[in-house]
What we know:
By secondary structure, this protein is of the alpha+beta class. It is built from 12 helices and 8 strands. The protein has helices spanning about 20-25, 40-50, 95-110, 150-155, 160, 170-180, 185-200, 255-260, 265-275, 280-290, 290-300, 305-325; strands at about 60-65, 70-75, 80-85, 120-125, 130-135, 145-150, 215, 220-225.
Amino acid sequence: MPRCLSSLADIAHEGYAGHATRELAGGRRKFPHRLTFSRSDVIDFRITAAEHMSISGVQDKISLRLERGHLLPTESNGEYILKPVPSGEIAHLKEDVPANEHLTMQIASQVFGITTAVNACVLFDDGELAYITKRFDRTDGGGKIAQEDFCQLSNRTEDTHGRNYKYDGTYEETGRILQRFCKAYPVEIEKLFRRIVFNYVFSNGDAHMKNFSLYRTGFGDHIMTPAYDLIASGLHFPNESRTALDLFDTLETEYFRGNGFYGQPDFMELAKLYGMDPGHASAFLDMFGVKRNKVADLIDRSFLSNEGKADYRTRFVERLCTICPTST
């Protein structure tokens, strides 16, 4: 039976379930699950539009607009971001990159209640899979919503902090940045904490300072944007660090000294530094054990290769042992 290219639920036909279409289309009736161009066209478009594109990063991503039922590349005022299989060098399971990001985003939203950017997979005209996400920094009328990532909020640039400026910080520091800019800190810090723990459990070693952002609401205050760029990067770079940033500025827990990696006591200590209710933090850590079967089901339903599914599952179980040891 076909699976929805967004939610992974069983559906009667190739494409999307009704609710997924509505989310992706933003009130419009149709959202195409097949594109009218190929991955090679994406690369060509990036080359010709390089001077005008505003999407950062090294991946071959481009902006799209939905016009008359078709998704078309655009140099400006894009509504969606398309990410195909990368053309650059990837250490392992390169073809699984789009399916990996899609699965990880779906697990975050469906299983753990993390608000994410609306996302799905689409098919090129030759049937190859790509990942697509709807931009959340645009209003329904096409206006831009003010948004700043944690590098911008902390005045980090390559000039001020060197080539690896995105990684020059700690998750403890991200809490201080959030406290400085968010009036609703007690609410928003729990969102930040959940994303940091989620990234750890799902082997995202690239959750750096630019992958956390705030945007301004209609009331003029700042809150966390929906989560984005959630991916089990360890599948593709097996030797990368377990976390993009250290958890703490200087603190080293007894657990870390004894094991050489983070675990439940470290994240509880981080929650304490954030000023969180310890019961809320503990309950979220326990959720990974409670929800393990739902995670396994989405992995099985995903568009990863069989090798990718096995690797993803193994990594999840291994991290689960450190974050929720009573579940195994």
